[in-house]
Amino acid sequence: MDQQPQFSKTLKATLPISENSPIPPLRIGSHTLNSRLILGSGRYDSFETMQQSLTTSGSDCVTIAVRQEKLHDSSGRNIIDFIDLDRFTLLPNTAGCYDADTAVRCAKMGREILKRLENPGANWVKLEVLGDSRTLLPDPIESLKATERLTADGFEVLCYTSDDPIVARRLKDSGAAAVMPAGSPIGSGLGIANPNHLAIIRDDLKRDDPDYPLVVDAGVGTASDAAIAMELGFDAVLLNTAVAHAKNPILMAEAMNLAVRSGWLARRSGRIGKSRYGSASSPEIGVISERQTRP
Amino acid sequence: MSSSPDPSNPPENQHQQGSAATEAILVNGQSMSFAGGTVSDLLKALSITTRAIAVELNQEIVPADQHHTTKISPGDKLEVVTLVGGG
Description:
The structure holds two protein chains of two kinds. By secondary structure, chain A is of the alpha/beta class. Chain A has helices at 7-14, 47-57, 100-116, 140-152, 165-173, 195-206, 223-231, 241-244, 249-269, and strands at residues 26-28, 31-33, 37-40, 61-68, 89-92, 124-127, 156-161, 178-181, 215-217, 236-239. Chain A has a single domain, classed as TIM Barrel (Alpha-Beta Barrel). Chain A is 35% helix and 15% strand. In chain A, helix 5 links the parallel strand 7 and strand 8 (178-181). In chain A, helix 2 runs parallel beside helix 9 (249-269), helix 3 (100-116) crosses helix 4 and helix 7 (223-231) packs parallel to helix 9 (249-269). The longest helix of chain A has 21 residues, at 249-269. The N and C termini of chain A lie far apart (56 Å). By secondary structure, chain B is mostly beta strands. Chain B has one domain: Beta-grasp domain (Ubiquitin-like (UB roll), Roll). Helices cover 8% and strands 36% of the residues of chain B. Chain B has one helix spanning 39-45, and strands at residues 23-27, 30-34, 37-38, 53-57, 60-62, 71-72, 77-85. In chain B, the strands form two sheets. Chain B has a five-stranded mixed β-sheet with strand order 2-1-7-4-5, with no helix packed on it. In chain B, strands 3-6 form a two-stranded antiparallel sheet. In chain B, strand 4 and strand 5 form a beta hairpin. Chain B is globular, with a radius of gyration of 13 Å. In chain B, 34% of the residues are buried. Strand 4 (61-68) of chain A pairs antiparallel with strand 7 of chain B.
């Protein structure tokens, strides 16, 4: 049986950190996010669970998809009614598109809907152009074409990509407002499969441009994956399934909230080096023992 | 409004051809008959009332403020989309 999120009460006592947080807001294009966690709105077992998960996540940006309206038997419930639009900026995606033409159309539809809702998310898009339905890995050529066209059309493009450093650079050069490499395939829960490539992308895209936003998008399975992404020097983490399909999504959303903050703080703290051998924390002199340490 | 959808003939999966009173159009990939009129008329006929939609006519967005004036012609292809959960 699922546990109720009993931890929340305890954690709230320690959470005022957020009010005096040393973690600065993140700027992506014209948008400012106070949380480094961007949460997806798909795959929850109910709108209510999604709503509560959004609350405990601490996030202020949520992704949404554009799909054909049901022409018959529409339930009458729209996801928008379960998202606090005063708190959340909507980030429409082009999920499920396999070529640049379709992705551009999808982005424009998302923009049109958000304009009608007078939502500030109308001018940006999470661009996702897939190349393979089994791995859900992106098509780099089509992603690049779509980035160029959407940027020319005035969009701020946050582009989902693989962890290929060269493609990441090409996307930045083509005008992407943020580059968002996958940690591992969408929904896989494999975490950060190639931290070395992510570190190369970070070094390359932030060289001479330290504020250029980089987001790990996809693959996160649990809180430590999100923390590792942040410790690698990424600016934010975008995830969906890790929360929505957790046994208790509301608790996992809170775990992710803490993880991205922990990871950000750890990165800025400057971690210790790694050593093959031990290094005592307590003084080695004055120990009440005659035993000699090894020379 | 010059013409409005015929309430006795709501758009369904009807593959009507050559009917004088209706025109065949494609909405979200479904063929349906439509009594003729504007995008607004079609949305009304489909009982779509939410503002959280966008309409594409032959692959071009029809801005909301043009729904009332944009006429639908026989053979037109429309997409009516909304927001759903996604990552």
